[in-house]
Design goal:
The structure holds three protein chains of three kinds. Chain B is mainly α. Chain B contains 13 helices and no strands. In chain B, helix 4 packs across helix 12, helix 7 packs across helix 8 and helix 9 runs antiparallel to helix 10.
Amino acid sequence: MAKHALRLVAVAYVLFLLVLPVILIIWRTFGDGLAPFVEALTSPSALHAFKVTLTVAGWAVVANTVFGVVTAILLVRHQFPGKQLLGAFIDLPMAVSPVVVGLALILVYGRFAPFGGLLESWGIQVIFSTPGMVLATVFVALPLVVRAIVPVLEELGDEQEQAAHTLGASRLQTFVRITLPGIRWALGYGIVLCLARSLGEYGAVAVVSGRLVDQTQTLTLFVEERFQNFDQPAAFAAATALALIAVVTLLLTKLLRPKDRIDGN
Amino acid sequence: MTREVTAITVRPARRLAGGTAAGLGVAVIYLSLIVLIPLAAVVWRSADQGPGYFWRSVTTPDAWAALTLTIGASALVALINLVMGTAIAWVLVRDRFPGRRVLDTIIDLPFALPTIVAGLVLLALYGPQSPLGINLAYSRAGVVLALMFVTLPFVVRTVQPVLLELDTEMEQAAASLGAGPFQTFRRVILPNLVPAMLSGTALAFTRAISEFGSTVLISGNLPFKTQVAAVNIFSQIEGDNTTGAAAISTVLLVVALVALVSLDVLQRWGRRRG
Amino acid sequence: MAIEVRDVNKSFGTTPVLHDVSLDVAAGSLTALLGPSGGGKSTLLRVIAGLERPDTGTVRISGVDATRLSPQRRNVGFVFQHYAAFKHLTVFRNVAFGLEIRKRPKAEIRKRVMELLELVHLEKLADRYPSQLSGGQRQRMALARALAVEPQVLLLDEPFGALDAQVRKELRTWLRRLHDEVHVTTVFVTHDQEEAIEVADTIVVLAGGEVVQAGSPGEVYDNPANPFVMRFLGPVTEIGGSLVRPHDIEISPGPVEGGSPAVVSRVVRLGFEVRVEVKVGGHDAWVQVTREQADRLGLGPGDTIHLRPVPGARSLALAL
C-alpha cells in the first residue's frame, strides 16, 4: 500500500510540476493548427533571433569543446602544481547566477571598463554585441564538456596511448586515432549538453546583449519580449520550439550517456 | 662515492613537459579571461567605495527584501527537494511500473529547458488563465514554484546512483535480524543515503539562490514582494548602479560558496563512511 | 649488443626505483627480467622503451644512444600486461596500426598483417573487435601488433600475468617457439621463476632496484649469487647452517660423516614425490625424496634420521 502511495506522490509531483505545464504550452501553440506556429516563427524578428541564437551558441560550443578537451586531458593525463585548484575553478560557473555573469563581463569588457575601452579603441565592441553574448554563453556552459569527458578519460587509462607511441604514432596521431575515438560518445554527450545550455541561456545574455530587438535578440530574449508585449502566440511558438529542442536534447543525451557506452564498439 | 654525487647533481630539476605547459597556459588564460577576472572584478567593484557603502547597498529596503526572499524561498525549496527528490529517486530505483523509464528521462527536463521557457510554461498552467483555476502569478508561491521546477533533478540525480549501488543483502540481513520495514529504512537505508541527499540539497539550494530566468515572468518582479535577488541585481544594472549590483552579487557568491564548501565537506564525510 | 643500459637511476618522487642499473642484452636473445614485485623490473623495461625517462644513465639500442629519444622514434615493440588493445579497432586494424602510421602501401599492409595473424593463429578473427576475444587471443593480437613494425627489440611487460594458469602455460611454450622462428631480440618481465627458466635463455634478477645476478637459467639456478636469488629461483631448506635445495639432501638411517641428526615430524605423499618434514637443530626443514626412496627408508613420524647434502650439491652458507 505504502509502495503505491509513494509511487502516486512521485508521479503526481513530476506530472504537475513538469509534464502538464510543458504539454499545456505545446497544446496552446498548436491549438489552432500548425499555420500560426509557422507564421510566428517566420516573422523577420523571429528569424533574426534564430540566427543570433545559432551564431552565439555555435561559437560558444566550439570554444568550450576545444577548451573542454584540452582541460580534461590536462586534468587526467598530466601532473602540475595547482591541479586541484584548476578543477575547482572549472566548476565555479555552476555556482554563479547568470545575472552576475553578465555583470562580471560588463565590469571587464564594458565600454567604460579599462579592458573593454582598450578593445573598443581597436574597433572591437564586446558588450551589447555578439562577442559579449558569446563570452556570457561560454561562461555558463564552461564545465559541461570537461565534466563529460573526465570520467571516461580516467576509465580509458593511458596504456592504449602508450602503445600507440611505441608503434610510432606522434602525439597528434595518438590523439586523433586513439584518444578521440575512445572518448567520442562522452564528447558527443558533452557537446549536446553544452549546445542545449547555450541555446537556452537567458539571464547572462539578457544582461550583456542590451536586448536590442532585431539586433542582439536571441530566441529566449524573443520569448520574453513578445510575452511582455502581449504577443502571446509568438511567445508560445518560440517557447514551444525551444521546448522541442530541449526534448530532443534529452533523448540524445539518453542515447549518448557515457556510462552506457563505455565498452561499446 | 663520486658516482653518488654526480647522480644527485646531474638529475634534472622537476619541470613541466612542453605539452603540459602549453595546454595549461591555454586553459588558464581562457579561464581567467572569461571566468576569474570578471568575477574578481565583481568583488572588487563591490568593495571599491568602502565597507559602509557595501553594507548600505545590501541593506537598502528593496535589496534586503530581495535577499531575504531569495534565501528563504531557496531554503524552503531545498527542503522540499530533500523530501520529494529522495522519494522520486526511491520510486525510480525500487519501484516497477509502466512508464518508469519515461519518468526517469523526464526528470532531466529542467536541465535542458531554457529557464525563460520554464517560467512561461508554469505561468500557462498556474497563471491568470490557469485551466486548473490556480493563480500563483505575482505571488511568492509562484517564486517557490519556479524554483521547484528548475531544481527538481539535483537531489534525484545524486541519490539515485547511491540507491542503485546499495546492497539489498544489507536490508535482508536487517530483516533477518528482526527489523521491520520502517526500522530497516531508518537504521540501514537512510544512514547510507544521507550524504547524497544532503549534497543534492546543497546543489539545489545553490541553484535556487542564483535563479533568474524562470522567476522573471511568473513573479512579476514586484519589489518588496516577489522580486528575487538576481532580478534586483538586474534592475540595478539597468539603472546603472553597478556598485550596488556588485554588492548583492558578492553576497550571492559568498552564500553559494559557503553552500558548496559545506557540500565538499559532506562529500568527504560520505566517502570516509563509504 | 642489441640493448646496452648503463648506470640508470630512476626515482618516482622521493622513492628510488632503479639504482645504478647496467645491463647488456645480446642480439637475438630471449631475456627474462625476473624479480619480486616492486623490484624495478617493469620500470627498467619502460625505460628501455622510452615510456619512462631515466634520471641519469644511458640506454643504447642497436648501438644508437636512445636515452633522449621518444618512444615514437625508438622502433621497439612493447606488449602491455593488460594488452592495451585499441578497443575501437578490429584485430586487423590493431595489427595494421604501426604500418598505417608509417604510411606503407595498402597492399603491403594487408599482406604483412595477414602473415602476422597467421603466425599468432588469429587469421580467422581478423574482423573481430578486441571485446570479442579471450584474454589469450588479445595477448597474441598485442604481440602481432608489436611485431608488425619489425621492431629492433621486443619488450613484454608481464605478458602472461593477467591470464589463467592453463592459458599461461600454453602461451609460454608458444612464445619460446615464436622466438625461435622470428629471432627478434626479446626482453620480458616476469615474477614467475618457473616461467623465466622455461622460456628465457638469459635471466636477469632484479631486486630492490638493482641487478642482483645475470646469467643463463642453469647458472642462476645452480650458482645463485646470494641467498635471496637462491630462495627466489626455487625451493630451499636450511640444514647445518646452509641453504640447500630440498632435492639435494641425502637421508641416512644411521650417523654419517658431515650429517646432521633430525627427527621426522610428518611425511606427505604428493604423487610421485614425497615431502619429508623434519626438525633439525631446533628448527623446521624439509627434504624432497622419490616415493621409491621413501618406501625403502620406511619413514614415519618420530623416526630419527641423519641428513647431509648430496655430493656436488650447491649450498650457500648462511651468515649467522
